[in-house]
Amino acid sequence: MADPVGIALAASAGGCGAVSAYALLAPGRTPGVREWLRRGRRPASRAPGALLRSVTGVAAYAGLRAHLAGSLERAGFAEQPEAAAGLGLLAAMAAGAAVAVSAGFLIDPVAGAVSGGLVFAAVPFLLLRRLNQAAEDRRQRLLGELGPILELVSLELSGGAPPMLALESVLGHSRSELGAAMRAQLIGSRVAGSASFDGRLDLLADRLRLPPLRAMAMILGLSRDYGSGVGQGVRALAADLRRARRRRVIELSRGALNRVLIPAAVGVLLPFMAILLFPAVAVLLRSFA
Amino acid sequence: MLAAEVGAGLVVGVAAYLFTGMPVLGLAAAGLAVASLVGWLGLRSTALRRDRQDAVVAAVRTLRQLLETGAVGVAAALEVLAERGPDRLRREFGAIVAAGGRPQAWAEARRQVAEPVFDLLSAAVVVQRPGGGELGPLFRELEESVIAAHEVEREAAALQVQARSASTLILCLPLAFLAVMCLLRSPYLDVYRTAFGQLFLASMLAVMAGAHVLIRRWLRLPEEPRVELVDG
Fold it and tell me: How large is the ipTM?
């Protein structure tokens, strides 16, 4: 038998939720000419969705949005920042609710609320960390792809090809992600009135946070403006990239032992001790009981 | 290979269960047998890969030396490699020479060799052909930097063997301890014959196996990316 008070409470809660969602999310209505004339000099009433728009209008929001959009682009995701943030928030709420309900049933409601809150706070942090890690992985992969492109360009240049032709020839053979991005910039720079290739490459390097790509853009720019040589610079850049990769491997291998120390102690040694001591502890507990 | 892994796991698992009388230890022993087989295959594959890497570096060196003499062109140098080059790559170079150095033949060789340095060698030859260009200096730099990189990678891998072995040893210690106690028919293990004891043992072994897998993953060094080229 359904409780009428409960039904009324549930219905009113649902109604309040729906109205709040409408106020927050409904798109703004563009006023027609007739409405505008009728309103005269009086200020317009607050349209549904104005609250959300007032939040998105704040300067800090624009900064945060740009930051998240940059991170998403560097990680190779094409999602809108709002959609990604919304999904992250949903995931955090779902995880927090699941933990809160489980802990509430198993321990007590206070523990449920605390653990749910902690999980709700931790999930966005973990998601952001994962996003940054994905961006760094992609950056390293693109850096790895840049080295061979530079080496092949220097080979073409040594054959006497002009810099842009050498680059075009190498990018025509490359199927890598960075090759495709650079090819798009090359094609874009051919459109009348658009920025030069080195300028576009500089912007791409800035977006992807690839300093060697920016150095290449600088070499191309200097060659165009002052007629300086490209071959030597490109070859040196390729050698630098190989040396940087070698340094990274050395750094990772030296730090590896320290990185696995705590997981080894907690995940391997501790359970080992537990397996050894469990029978003794069980006997002791039985005798005390 | 999957059948061999499953078979080894089943045999060792059943034997361990019959020996100890504990299902959890049977499962753990089966897992250990499969992991040992996979590890052995991994070691063999690493050794083969290193042989292949050395062969590619030797091919780059030979090609560079031949081109620097100025007496032969790229096509003739490839023929020399097909006849007298590194054993592991003669077949691939032979196929390239037989196909007249067509890009498709290089693409097939790249698929078979699957080494970033060979990708770059192939890209250099394919890119160089229409416009010309000095392959000698490029191959010299490539050879020097690749030898240095391989040296660092192998040194790093040797250093990490220590951490991997320590983790594997600690992982095997409780199993060895339990096996010895079972052999001695020790009453110390009676608590592990109850349902709660089995659950506790299973969870602890699962934590250890998970940590071991994570440690091996964290110790993995970044690999050099392949050079992706348009086939044909």
Answer: 0.73
